[in-house]
Amino acid sequence: MVALATAVASVNAQDMLSKKGTAILPESGDWSIGFDATPILEHFGNVFYNSGSPDFPQTPNTLVGKKMTDENTAIRVKLRIGIGSYKEENLVHDDVSTAIPNPMVVDTWKESYTAITIGGGIQKYRGKGRVKGFYGAEVGIMFGGGKHTYEYGNAITSTNTSPTSTDWYAPMTGGYMNLPTGWGSRVTEEKNGSGFGVNLNGFIGVEYFFAPKLSLGAEYGWGLSLNSFGEGETTSEGWNSTSSGVQTTTTKTGKSSNFMLDVMNPGGSIVLSAYF
């Protein structure tokens, strides 16, 4: 019996090594990074993946990784530090110039944003061989904000109370519509309310190690999500015929929040993981 048990253990150990003797399963101390497997599976006919399901645990624009603390335990981490800006220019006709051909002036749209995500959790593995079940829990916090600013080449004056300006809300193929601000005002700044969110999720899934330190995993999640967005504001400028001057108006956009205790990804998620 001892000889038989030894032989079985030897066969199982060999099965967990590649032909070159490389370990197939992750080992204590290994790090892992995950990738959304959607493009790969869609390439093979979208047979295994429902592209309409949310990206979980591969949160968009967020780095997701794991560290194996032992052969059956991993620490999961998520991190995003997003700070960015965007600028776009559009040419409109100069309302003041009488030159032929009519020269152009520049309208500008600038966007800036901040988006921070920090998360962590623990993942436990079960089973033997290439197919490993797993379960665990994680917590995360998110916060951010942003604003849009608009500058116009044609000024609002007493002789041109409705200057030609870019309507940034009406995109068209190849550019934007150049419309006079017939409504009497145009937006100069939009500030988004600061956002804050927290989530606490449990998850369960399975990983199949099809090659040394490479796996495809399927995962479902369930948990609590709470998000809150502060009050934003929109600033506009227009001609005030009563006071015969340019009037600036600021309006509030209001607050919002949402709460959810539900399945996070009812369609499931497929993740390609690499361990090293």
Give structural attributes.
276 residues; mainly beta; 10-stranded antiparallel beta sheet; two-stranded antiparallel ribbon; 12 strands; 7% helix; 62% strand; disordered N terminus
How does this model look, in words?
- By secondary structure, the chain is mostly beta strands.
- The protein has helices at residues 2-15, 38-43, and strands spanning 31-36, 63-70, 73-93, 104-126, 131-151, 164-172, 175-180, 185-191, 195-211, 214-240, 245-263, 269-275.
- The protein has one domain (29-275).
- It has two helices and twelve strands; from the N terminus they run αβαβββββββββββ.
- A hairpin with a 4-residue loop joins β10 and β11 (245-263).
- It is elongated and about 80 Å long.
- Residues 1-14 and 40-55 have low confidence and may be disordered.
SSE topology sketch:
Blueprint: H1 2-15, E1 31-36, H2 38-43, E2 63-70, E3 73-93, E4 104-126, E5 131-151, E6 164-172, E7 175-180, E8 185-191, E9 195-211, E10 214-240, E11 245-263, E12 269-275
Antiparallel strand pairs: 1-2, 1-12, 2-3, 3-4, 4-5, 5-8, 5-9, 6-7, 8-10, 9-10, 10-11, 10-12
